[in-house]
Amino acid sequence: MLVQVPSGEVLTFGDDNFIMFEEVGVKEARKAAFVLVAGGLGERLGYKGIKVALPSETTTGTCFLQNYIACILALQEASCKLLEDKYPVEIPFVIMTSDDTHTPTLKLLESNSFFGMKPGQVKLLKQEKVACLDDNDARIALDPNDKYMIQTKPHGHGDVHSLLYNSGLLNIWHDAGLRWVLFFQDTNGLLFKAIPASLGVSATKGYHVNSLAVPRKAKEAIGGITKLTHADGRTMVINVEYNQLDPLLRTTGHSDGDSNCETGYSPFPGNINQLILELGPYIEELNRTHGAIAEFVNPKYKDSSKTSFKSSTRLECMMQDYPKTLPPTARVGFTVMDAWLAYAPVKNNPEDAAKVPKGNPYHSATSGEMAIYRANSLILRKAGVQIADPITTVFNGQEVEVWPRITWKPKWALIFSDVKKKVNKGCSVSQRSTLVINGENIYFGGLSLDGALLINAVSEAEVQVTGSVENKGWAFKPIDFKDNSLPEENRIRGFVIEKLEQLEKNYSEPGQFSLH
Ligand code: UTP
């Protein structure tokens, strides 16, 4: 077999090409449906609740699900506005749950009025669990709490394809003129910063399958996107899981295995498991396969004798294995973006995150939150705002960069050209500052911020912000993650925010206002 680096689109944030793809993507969004896979147990994180209920950042406390819904609604509005559409669309949103996550996910939605989405716009599809196996001879495992029951565990996110096929939703979407299905995961607070440009790439390049990717460090725990050519000439562009990439490369003539090239990164883009599929070809393929995805077992052994498991295993399947059955004519590509813009999942508990080799991402609640502040700071910097350099701090044994705590609602800016329209070059923000932008029409013309500023405005209020704001601001107070008297949401980050002093402005009536 031949293992090569496939071809795809590599984007640079903020250049003309990127801006062009973003604008195409926003136009296309009205023809998209979003699918969140949120049935996972989150064993590595070990959080007692569902992951989508965790705050993506603690400055505003916005949870992942709320953020995702706000992004989809903002895309829906922006897409319809761009096309001056008199009949606004409702972008469908599907959440795949499992027995472990279904009820709490539904409760979270219901108790928050679906975070502003119409209840009929959201559909929950529950995946079933499968029987567990105790040993190499595949003896069925018994439930540790009831020896008359078979132990079961989730079957992997690959179930999403058969669930969608059987739900009948795909044909309904197709008949309604939709063209794209976007799959994404439960805890990536940056994802929607990458969605418009990647959807633009799918539409422009005519990709049937577009995998979002980031530059990958050799041995980093994310799969690599590869082009495999079999001896009989069959080829496929497919994710190879990180634990299989090194042995695969070594047995196919790459004697260095999974190693960095001259760029300092692996030549294989890192798959972040956010997929954009073109609906027509997707339906055709599922009509053939009914959504069945190749299964595998991945037992975690107690020791190198590989005779007994740490805990029971089961058959699993992965959604990114979908291209494996595609015909050679299928257009399978990828879109690479910088990790700071596109990928900061919350997967690891503090103890495991602290053990991640230096230079590789922690993928913890701490790093996931800091990544949001860093991305927003870097985007504003690129738009000409003077943003102070970060400081380095250690929380929960992880060394992270702390940038100013800047957050905005997606309706303020979905894409880079929105940001550029709303800030001018005379603004500056100090490192210890917090800036919360909660409103659509808030314009910054020369703000100098050293402290905390929160602006809440209805869409019909246009607010011009100038002058300087200085106060004690909000500070991070380190906490011990083992301190059980504190909420788990904070403990897994290693800090709480101390709100010392802030300027908070609310504009609840339509009109023109200035804050100076
Ligand atoms: P992860 O790789 O983060 O796995 O899943 P996980 O199962 O949630 O966490 P661990 O491995 O137990 O620590 C990636 C995405 O796939 C979803 C997760 O909810 C997450 O969004 N997923 C995973 C499912 O929807 N179903 C599954 O059976 C497994």
From TrEMBL:
Catalyzed reactions per annotation: a monosaccharide 1-phosphate + UTP + H(+) = a UDP-monosaccharide + diphosphate
Pfam families with a match to the protein in the record: UDPGP (PF01704)
Catalytic activity, EC: 2.7.7.64
InterPro entries according to UniProt: Nucleotide-diphossugar_trans (IPR029044), UDP-sugar_pyrophosphorylase (IPR039741), UDPGP_fam (IPR002618)
This protein's UniProt keywords: Nucleotidyltransferase, Transferase
Annotated coiled-coil segments of the chain: none
Swiss-Prot/TrEMBL cofactor(s): Mg(2+); Mn(2+)
Molecular function terms from GO: UDP-N-acetylglucosamine diphosphorylase activity; UTP-monosaccharide-1-phosphate uridylyltransferase activity
Any one of the GO BP annotations: UDP-N-acetylglucosamine biosynthetic process
Keyword Cell inner membrane: no
Family membership noted in the UniProt record: Belongs to the USP family.
Role according to the record: May function as the terminal enzyme of the myo-inositol oxidation (MIO) pathway. May also play a role in the salvage pathway for synthesis of nucleotide sugars.
Protein name: UDP-sugar pyrophosphorylase
Species this protein is from: Dendrobium catenatum
